[in-house]
Design a protein that fits this description.
Helices cover 33% and strands 16% of the residues. By secondary structure, it is an alpha/beta fold. It folds into 4 domains: 11-95 and 315-368, 2-Layer Sandwich (Phosphorylase Kinase, domain 1); 110-307, Transferase(Phosphotransferase) domain 1 (Transferase(Phosphotransferase), domain 1, Orthogonal Bundle), CATH 1.10.510; 399-540 and 700-738, Response regulator (Rossmann fold, 3-Layer(aba) Sandwich); 543-670 and 760-771, Rossmann fold, CATH 3.40.50.2300.
Amino acid sequence: MEPLRTGDPSRLGRYRLLRRLGVGGMGVVFLARAPGGAIAAVKTVRSSYAQEPGFRARFRREVAVARQVDSPWVVPLLDADADAETPWLATSYVPGPSLSETVDTFGPLALTSVRTLGVRLAEALEAVHAAGLVHRDVKPGNILLAPDGPRLIDFGIARAPEATALTSSGVIVGSPGFLSPEQARALGGEIGPPSDVFSLGCVLAFAGTGVRPFGGGGAPGVLLRTVYEDPDPDALPDALAPLLKDCLHKDPSHRPALPRLREALAGRASEQAGADEGAEAGEAPGTGPAGSARDTGPAVGSGSGWLPEPVTRLINDRAAAVLTLGAVEPTQVSAPADPAAPGSSASPGSSAPQVSPDAVTLTAVTAAPPAAPGVSRRRFMVLGSTAGVVAAGGGGAWWWSTRSGTPGTPSSGASPRPDLVVAFHGDLTGPGKADGNAQLNGARLAVEQIDAEKDHPFRFRLVPHDDGGDPARADALAQRLTRDAGVRAVLGPTGDACFLGAEAAYTKAAMPVVTVSVDVDLDGRSFGYDQFRSHAALHVERSLLAAPCVRWLSNHADARKVFLVDDRAQGDIAWTLCDLTQRALRRAGRDSVLTSVPAGRIDYASLAARVRSAHADAVVFTGDAARAAGFATALRGSGFTGTRMATEQAFGPAFLSAAGAAATGWVFVTSFVDPAVRPAARAFAAAYRRRFGAAPGRYAAEAYDAVRFLAAACTKDGAAVRERGAIARRLREVAHTGITRTVRYRAGQGFNNDAMFDYQVTDGRFRYLGQYEEAAVS
């Protein structure tokens, strides 16, 4: 929670505001106290929304929706004022974590807990449907856990089934991975209560196994699997598999009605409780993931005790922290004005804490980390103009040129500083060894700087480990590191495949993991934004590289017709990048052609001929270095002289050597800087060259910033933070302005969506042009 800021109101209606809970997509959320002493969450609405024609009518409708639903398992609306200068609504405050946070932090729930969860959510949805509504976004982020049962939140997109004006076909509403096939196909008029049953089945599967029934990765792939493929058998708890398969039937008419689903879950829970009572003495109760041989816990309806003890303890801690605020007047502090704050005139670039938009439509639960507005894929289609750049700065004073004394020596009279072990998990000998070793060396320089700071509360001990680029080795390494209680956090892995190999072990152990070169969308963040909670992915999602492509094509090249090449060898990410680029170009009034090439052999001459016959004046290629070089050579042979662009997948010496003269003029968009050219990183580049005898490789400077960012997460109130879970939580609470960028988490967006940079091939080398919105072109 954050103190109130200058410019924040002290009251809204009858509610006295105590703290900021954060900023969501609609506005600021406050923790507040009613005259009777009750604690509430009060959400305000941004003035930009309030001034839109028809908004207040829609806001009243949302309020009416919430008031129609009568269930103890739905967070109740307390009050609202749609006609106030700043519209607001207040709901009961639930101090529990979301189901998403719970599973990510503590692992899957036991079967008895899953059944209890299912019964209560089925009752909640029965109340929703009885009011003539369909929730449309039943997902783990919209389910809060309390000692007596779950709470369903967020009716911001709940609409009556017959409200066709609000559910028009062609618009997908919901979160991939938890929406129904009819939602995935955007069949607005056909979406009814069975759609919520499908989503509930996905939620219960996730709660019991920690796995999404239709997999992770990019949203397009998840949507396709939802529509056409069967659920992943590993995502379904064995004891509930038949029932959940019925819920996940593609045909809505074949899904069970909520009463039958509730009765089946309740009946089986009672059977399980009875079986547990007859267990042999001395047999340990099951508290692990669903599907374990033993599973004890309360039967449905027994109230408290349905959650694992660590979750209950977390709820109690949060409740206690909130209750202490209700009895004292909050202290307002000066802080940068927030554009979402009522009456604020701050610029859109002002820094402000945020919470996930998924958690603030009707309630807010947890304190939010500091964050700042940035590029999200929901708002991507405005990228033809600006994208909220955050320029990196600072980091100019380097310990190796100014230090005195011995590195790691504590100040006079101080106690010896503790060592915090950070494991470097990377590819040091395999196909990604160039990037892996560059990251390791960049991290080493950061650790040496930290250890030389006499007043720092701890010393980092960086221990390198090599997975050789092998996912199986990465998995084994991750399991070994998580069993080592001395390891506090992990930097790495280097590549996507090894990250996926290690992810399950790291997630289960809630190991804090910071990556700088991994681009794995675990669960459709473009809609849900809930990657596993202990992971800080500092690499921008590659699909967002569409932003610098669009800006270059519009502002520098003034392209009128763009030929986009979706290289299927890159999977869904290439198609998504091309699709986003094409949509943004269309909104900018520019024409484009999107074509796909197979993952196998490409007929480069034919592809170049198609570019010429389309009369394109620019091309964007999404493949790797070898394939981009083949295309570049064919384009040059065809006489094409227009703008040629590629992404970081093709960036590197391999492209320059293979393409030769055909490489000249190509523009590359990447997520990494050239530290030798970037002013804030030049000292780092010089020190790297002196220490390692070569220029910094890709991601070396980013790895340096990652270690400094991790050091900030391991420090609180001047003391070292040693517990893994606490470090993982702080990854989303701290910010570090480094030599490449400002590293911070932005609720609903992830880390560093602005960190994208332009290069151009000149005189046989890559010339760094800068951050894509500030790139200077001669």
